[in-house]
Amino acid sequence: MSTNPDPNSASTSDGSASVVIPSYNMGWCITGAITSCQVQTEAVQEIIVVDDYSTDNTKSVVHDLASRDPRIQYFKLERNERHLAALYFGAHQATCAWIALLDADDELTPNSIEARLVAAREYQNETGIKPQLVYGDQRDAQFAKVRGYIFPYLCKELSLCQTSTIMLGKECIAYFPRYGSRGNTDDEIVISIGRHFHVLHCGATVAIYKKHDSASRMSNDPKQVFIGICELVRGHRTDVIREHGRTRLVLWRLRLLKAFIRYQVATATTLIDASSHTFAGGIRALSLRIYRRALKLINFPLTVFLARHFDNNFF
């Protein structure tokens, strides 16, 4: 694979698309994700499922679906590599001109692929440049509508959209990150690709985000969210300083504080709920409630302050 891809080398007349679905213990919901790929208004050529060493029935579910649809390909990693590495593996298996990413617990809207292909084609006709990351909104969430070379913006926000809204051009896969923040896969992808290529919002809703309480969803664990943001900022602090100066890094430190407060509030709540019904347990619960209240008092003005300095309120 070339390490210096030409973003204009592939014709937009080639509208073939693969979908990569990473899955870790998502056998209970992956059928919905795969089905949403099968009913696209613009036919998907490959549906690549990367099983990140699941211990549930993911393999049997996917094999059953694949027996009726030859487009479905199943790969199982030899050990649990985490979300980003599973996506990296799948993206390198894809052979189509475009590669859409879809979490196993989400679904694509029926015109998801078509909307992004049309937007990419129109953008190239207008500018002469083929964007390599085309994204859209979720059914219940809208993202910043940006287009062009937006790397300075990405260094300011360190975020843009959710994984299941992303579609990549084949030419940029050489720059797809294999490792990075464990809880911020989408951010690592957009920063890595946006460093080299044009990015485009397609103007449509392209994915349906499914909320659930499963432990496999990182966003359900405030501690892991905090750790993930720490890793994200640590990994890109040089870019932040280079593009926006050290003041911007200070603002990111405050966002880390906000994430830490959320983690501590959740921890305190868990400990309060588990407190014994004894005198000592009551004193401990009271202390935790005071601590939690103090954290919430700090969090409110902090949230208001940060909202004035960041477009995206994902952290």
In sequence order, what are the helices and strands, one letter per element? EHEHEHEEHEEHEHEHHH
**How many strand units?**
9
- Please state the average pLDDT score: 93
Output the structural class: alpha/beta
Q: Which quaternary structure do these chains form?
A: single chain
- Under CATH at level 1, the class of the largest domain stands as Alpha Beta
Largest sheet: 9 strands, mixed
Helix content: 40-55%
Amino-to-carboxy terminus distance: 35 Å
CATH topology of the largest domain: Spore Coat Polysaccharide Biosynthesis Protein SpsA, Chain A
Shape descriptor reads: globular
Low-confidence sequence ranges: 1-13
- Tell me the β content: 5-15%
From the coordinates shown, what is the CATH architecture of the largest domain? Alpha-Beta Complex
Q: What is the CATH homology-level superfamily of the largest domain?
A: Spore Coat Polysaccharide Biosynthesis Protein SpsA, Chain A
Counted by DSSP, the helix tally is 9
> How many independent structural domains?
2
Task: Indicate the radius of gyration in whole angstroms.
Answer: 21 Å
Give an account of the 3D structure.
With 315 residues, the protein is of the alpha/beta class. The protein has two domains: 17-208, Spore Coat Polysaccharide Biosynthesis Protein SpsA, Chain A (Alpha-Beta Complex), CATH 3.90.550.10; 219-307. Helix content is 45%, strand content 15%. Strands 1, 2, 3, 4, 5, 6, 7, 8 and 9 form a nine-stranded mixed sheet that branches. It is globular and about 70 Å long. Mean pLDDT is 93; it is low at 1-13.
Helix-strand blueprint:
Blueprint: E1 17-23, H1 30-38, E2 46-51, H2 58-66, E3 72-76, H3 83-93, E4 98-101, E5 107-108, H4 112-127, E6 133-138, E7 147-148, H5 151-157, E8 166-169, H6 185-194, E9 199-208, H7 222-244, H8 246-273, H9 279-307
Parallel strand pairs: 1-2, 1-4, 2-3, 6-9
Antiparallel strand pairs: 4-8, 5-9, 6-8, 7-9
